[in-house]
């Protein structure tokens, strides 16, 4: 395990940007209103999700301009994904729909005055320079009546480039966005249409008539504690990334009793994060703490959700316990709660969530004492190839989701030994971050006979 380093200086460089432009579909597309599903338009998804892809210099692409290649690919991809070129409208009972106007997505061409290797540790979250690589165009950050995608391509002096996105999360989940990105990359490499054609069919995840809440949804419970003392803003917090290689995963696996059976890497790291974070925040022993696991439900439908569907198809069931029970029980206790929560998600569970949304006015999930983990390691974001090869990094640019900083994203990466690893960025108050790092080291040490496990030798990231 290695973490971000507060000693690394933030890189200083200048980015020269062209005026933002609107990129429309390359051909005429249908003008229509398309309803989002009742999973898509819940309150918890009404935020903009930033991500970034970093590509190194490729001699075989000499003379090719990544800005032109990607702009053209984007325009041609929007012919198939034309709702992205429209604007969201809000109707009765806060129902969201896409007005397919062909207005286009915002696109920015930019140049940086440094080479990628001059950024050093900053090629991973958190990116202290991210606002240079994805300019927040004034007036573009809303949910309704605003562009659904913001894209910036920044060339670097070495021939590499970054491709940064900001996605309106109501339109797509991680799997859907990866599908869109893959389609863009295929078009950039010369395809005439995506290998997987997009499917709208949002009615598959709309509420039933009449709606009926048939499952227990602890992710939407009302908290019974005073929230006034625990609401924090971004300025009160720092962000760091943590990396788990094969050594750390093996260390966690040794802490799990055999009767729990095989555990996934996601379950192990999520349980570790939950325990260490809860201790670091020093919450009251009898307070409830929730770990919500993002569960992709596509394969849990019968028949399955159609291949090509790019809307949101996930739930975030909550594993719930008290701080005292979480901290005093063995590690296997947290793992078991997480495994049980993940297993709750079925086709009926998804329909029950959609029905809850229309019945209760699209409520926000429980934020008090909560942490949410999304697993993006299977999305294949690093493999998105526009002709320059795999990305050096591909994934979210930071933790958090809108104004809620208890969200983290697990992404795949490779350490200095060439080993496949997992990383996640988290926000915590400064003192809590120090305690988190100590708790994490202590936990990994428990399973080792001779002190601490070997730390992965991935380069460290800088804190915000």
TrEMBL record:
- Could you list this entry's UniProt keywords, alphabetically sorted: Transferase
What InterPro entries is this protein classified in? CAT-like_dom_sf, Plant_acyltransferase
* Single GO molecular function: transferase activity
| Recorded coiled-coil stretches | none
- Signal peptide residues are none
**A Pfam family matched by this chain, by name?**
Transferase
Sequence similarity: Belongs to the plant acyltransferase family.
Task: State what protein this is by name.
Answer: Benzyl alcohol O-benzoyltransferase
Organism of origin: Arachis hypogaea (Peanut)
């Amino acid at each position: 395990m290695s973490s971000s380093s507060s000693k690394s200086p933030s890189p200083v460089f200048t980015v020269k940007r062209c005026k933002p432009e609107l990129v429309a579909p390359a051909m005429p597309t249908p003008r229509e209103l398309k309803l989002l599903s009742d999973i898509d338009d819940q309150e918890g998804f009404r935020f903009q999700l930033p991500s970034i892809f970093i590509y190194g210099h490729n001699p075989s692409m000499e003379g090719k301009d990544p800005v032109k290649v990607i702009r053209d690919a984007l325009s041609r991809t929007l012919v198939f994904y034309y709702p992205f070129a429209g604007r969201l409208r809000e109707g009765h009972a806060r129902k969201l729909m896409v007005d397919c106007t062909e207005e286009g997505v915002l696109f920015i061409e930019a140049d940086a005055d440094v080479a990628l290797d001059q950024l050093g540790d900053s090629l991973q979250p958190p990116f202290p320079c991210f606002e240079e690589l994805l300019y927040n165009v004034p007036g573009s950050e809303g949910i309704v009546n605003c562009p659904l995608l913001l894209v910036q391509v920044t060339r670097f002096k070495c021939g590499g480039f970054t491709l940064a996105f900001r996605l309106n999360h109501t339109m797509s989940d991680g799997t859907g966005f990866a599908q869109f990105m893959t389609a863009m990359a295929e078009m950039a490499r010369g395809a005439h249409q995506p290998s997987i054609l997009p499917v709208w069919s949002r009615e598959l995840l709309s509420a039933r008539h009449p709606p009926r809440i048939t499952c227990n949804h602890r992710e939407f419970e009302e908290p019974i504690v005073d929230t006034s003392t625990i609401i924090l803003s971004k300025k009160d917090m720092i962000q760091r990334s943590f990396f788990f290689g094969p050594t750390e995963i093996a260390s966690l696996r040794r802490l799990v009793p055999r009767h729990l059976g095989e555990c996934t890497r996601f379950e192990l790291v999520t349980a570790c994060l939950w325990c260490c974070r809860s201790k670091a925040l020093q919450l009251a022993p009898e307070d409830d703490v929730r770990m919500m696991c993002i569960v992709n439900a596509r394969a849990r439908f019968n028949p399955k959700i159609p291949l090509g569907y790019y809307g949101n198809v996930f739930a975030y069931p909550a594993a719930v316990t008290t701080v005292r029970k979480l901290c005093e029980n063995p590690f296997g206790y947290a793992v078991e709660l997480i495994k049980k929560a993940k297993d709750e998600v079925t086709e009926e569970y998804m329909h029950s969530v959609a029905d809850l949304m229309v019945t209760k006015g699209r409520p926000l999930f429980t934020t008090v004492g909560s942490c949410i983990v999304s697993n993006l390691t299977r999305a294949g974001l690093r493999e998105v190839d526009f002709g320059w090869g795999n990305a050096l990094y591909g994934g979210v640019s930071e933790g958090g989701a809108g104004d809620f900083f208890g969200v983290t994203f697990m992404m795949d990466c490779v350490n200095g030994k060439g080993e496949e690893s997992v990383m996640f960025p988290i926000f915590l108050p400064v003192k809590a971050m120090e305690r988190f790092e100590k708790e994490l080291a202590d936990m990994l040490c428990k399973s080792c006979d001779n002190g601490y496990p070997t730390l992965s030798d991935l380069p460290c990231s800088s804190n915000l």
